[in-house]
Here is the input.
Amino acid sequence: MSSTRPRALPAVALAVLLLLAGACASPADPSPSAPRPRPLAYVRLQAGPPAPLGEIMDLQLTIVPAVDAPNTQVFFSLPTGIVPIAGRTQQWVDLERGLPLTFPLRVLLLDPGPQSVVAGAMAAAGPDGAESAALDRLSLDVAPAGTSIRGEDGAIIPLAPPLDADALPWLTPFAPRASAPLLRCIGGTLPGASGVAVRCSVGDAPDDQVLVRLSAWLLGPQGVIAKVDPLCSASLRAGGGVCSRDIHIAASSWNGRAVVAGILLPSNQRFGPAVVLAEIEP
Here is the structure.
């Protein structure tokens, strides 16, 4: 049975609106007649072991509700250089006062340099006089040698313990990013189960882009097994193109799952990702 819930704004827009609201809010009345609202919840966003550029890192959001808040939106807001691999970036939950909840998310680090991740909870309205949102932020510094997490003062923050990978549901497929080219990939098992034939299509690319170049990360139970770069490339006509490649790999831990992302040329705009599954026939 379906239920009617408030329409959710994109997580990025939600975070920006909240930050702007906090910056523009007038100073609180110091008089005893204007007490501060109770917090909606106490939240903490943590990361697992450091991962280098092009590898997988685990995130975990912990929420301890301060009030009962049904139909609360829990979300992760990710920059374009970090894409979700497993978990959910947005969901609706019922918060119960004092009952801790944890939300894991596994991500792939695609772009180097400073990256900011925002996560938290938002209620449709502040329940029982409480605040309507609770947010936390991680500032990541992604590099080929590894990723560090820094506080507002620039100091490195210790990383949290690793998450249980078996508890993470896999996302297939990913929703396309707003105002970005569409990328769809399918995979078919090659004869003799010696590999996977991958075929990707690109659509809605800007007319001034002439070429697309795709890369793939092959995923196993413990993370990235190998990177195929380039996976394939194709010329674009009327904003679209198709390319394909047969992938052969000897690693027994690879089950045919891969993540593909692309770059448009000459703008170097990154887009994607798309998921490839060996059991999906072309």
About this structure: The CA atoms of residues 22 and 99 lie 27 Å apart. The radius of gyration is 21 Å. Residues 182-276 form a domain with the Immunoglobulin-like fold (CATH 2.60.40.10).
